[in-house]
Design a protein that fits this description.
Blueprint (H helix, E strand, L loop, with lengths): L13 H14 L7 E7 L6 E11 L2 E5 L6 H9 L1 E6 L2 E9 L5 H16 L12 H8 L4 E4 L1
Antiparallel strand pairs: 1-2, 1-4, 2-3, 3-6, 4-5, 5-6
């Protein structure tokens, strides 16, 4: 029996510039389809680290999904237990709880429906057409956090 390897897709090429552009717009108060700047204290340095994220609202609850897998912000927020969501001058302090794998498929289906065009390249198959069994397999590689 083999354990699921943590997946981490590094930003490269155009994505780096796209992320910087989204980061700039969000810092200026312009949200693209719900983007926010997630600020989390570094787990080793204690310094604030920022990253643009898409905030998913599902059944009245908000979630942070990490389509690139176990990235630095994921590792930091696990240790910190929360951070800040920023849009322009507005800052919202948040705490988060990691969602268990069995609860993720419905959330991932909604996330992929809304932002699939943006995150599809991080996966090997067409995520919008993934069935329940495939979504369950993907769920083990995609960290999801409920914003409390």
């Amino acid at each position: 029996m083999t354990a699921v390897q943590p997946r981490h897709v590094q930003a490269a090429g155009f994505e780096v510039y796209f992320n910087r552009f989204v980061h700039f717009l969000t810092r200026k108060g312009i949200s693209l389809l719900g983007t926010r700047i997630l600020a989390v204290r570094g787990r080793a340095s204690g310094e604030w680290r920022t990253n643009p994220v898409n905030v998913l609202t599902y059944d009245g609850t908000r979630y942070l999904v990490a389509p690139r897998g176990h990235t630095q912000w994921v590792r930091n927020i696990r240790v910190a237990g929360g951070g800040e969501l920023r849009l322009g001058r507005r800052t919202e302090a948040i705490t988060v709880t990691e969602v268990p794998d069995e609860e993720k498929p419905a959330l991932l289906r909604q996330y992929f429906k809304r932002w699939g065009w943006e995150v599809a390249r991080f996966f090997e198959e067409d995520i919008k057409k993934a069935d329940g069994e495939r979504l369950q397999a993907i769920a083990a590689t995609v960290p999801v956090f409920r914003i409390d």
